[in-house]
Amino acid sequence: MTLHRFQGFRPEAITFLENLRKHNNRPWFQAHKDIYENVVKAPLGELILRIGEAFRRFAPEMVADPRISLYRIYRDTRFSRDKSPYKTQVAAVFPVRGLPKNSGPGLYFHFSPDEVLIGGGIYMPEPHLLRAVRERIAARPRDFLAILEARSFRSTFGELEGERLVTMPKGFASDSAAAEYLRYKQFLFAREFPATIATTPRLESRILDCFEKGMLLIRFLQKPAFKSLAVSRAREISHLPDTLR
Q1: Burial zone of 134 (CB within 10 Å; 0-12 exposed, 13-18 middle, 19+ buried)
Q2: 11-234 has which CATH code?
Q3: b/e string for 191-222 if b means 16 or more Cβ within 10 A?
Q4: Under DSSP, is residue 85 helix (H, G, I), strand (E, B) or coil?
């Protein structure tokens, strides 16, 4: 079944997030939860399905499923000084099929009263994944640089973003053609748009355009992610008793 084009969120969705920012507490949210469910969450689920339909054309390996992609609005406050219970932005993530949701490369967007942000990459890779990514960059620096320097990527996202080390990580050559990227601890790309785009039909086309232009980097990153996952699973199996292997 072909879905109708997403027409954008109703303006009430932005108003809801603005008010949630002012009244970030459980009593207020519970009193307005039906607005969140009907004006924010339900349309976001529809948009995720639309994106999934488009993925069949240019990124069939990406997952777009409301049960997986839609981030909860509830904050995890266990280790945070900020005990506000709710997020004031609405977000969705699109992982690579076969990789953990938040441990490999993926595509992402969110909207808030301040902005729409569309991008992707790897946010917080575990050490073994980070090393695998660095090893692939070191082995294929020209391929990596060609992606980042392509006109479509650079004009859309600009420079690759992310935290980085001050010095070269151990075991990697400082004279590599992609040496500066071997110091990265995150590999992120993103583009910001005005929040008002979220309430228009242009939102869907902006998301799909950014996602399509980011897929070359996602595909470069997913290979070391699968390699890292295979190594991790092999280690887990090696520690099992013989009767469970």
Answers
A1: buried
A2: 3.30.930.20
A3: bebebebbbeeebbebbbebbbbbbbbbebbb
A4: coil
Give the length of the chain. Answer: 245
CA 7/CA 165 separation, integer angstroms: 43
**φ, ψ (nearest 5 deg) of residue 116:** -115, 130
Structure tokens at 117: 């942000």
What is the rounded distance in angstroms from the CA atom of residue 181 to the CA atom of residue 147?
13
Angle at the Cα of 157 from the Cα atoms of 43 and 212, rounded to 5 degrees = 55
* pLDDT at res. 102: 83
Is 69 in contact with 48 (CB distance < 8 Å)? yes
Long-range contacts of 148-157 (CB under 8 A, 24+ apart): 148/181, 148/217, 150/216, 152/213, 153/189, 153/213, 153/214, 153/216, 153/217, 156/191, 156/209, 156/210, 156/213, 156/214, 157/119, 157/189, 157/190, 157/191, 157/210, 157/213, 157/214
The tens digit of pLDDT for each residue in 26-78 reads 999 999 999 999 999 999 999 999 999 999 999 999 999 999 999 999 999 88
- Structure tokens given for 192: 């910001």
In this prediction, residue 244 has a pLDDT band, given cuts at 50, 70 and 90, of very low
Residue ranges of domains in the chain:
11-234
Q: Which of 152, 139, 228 is nearest to 181 (CA)?
A: 139
Residue listed under structure tokens 């207020």? 28
d(CA 131, CA 125): 9
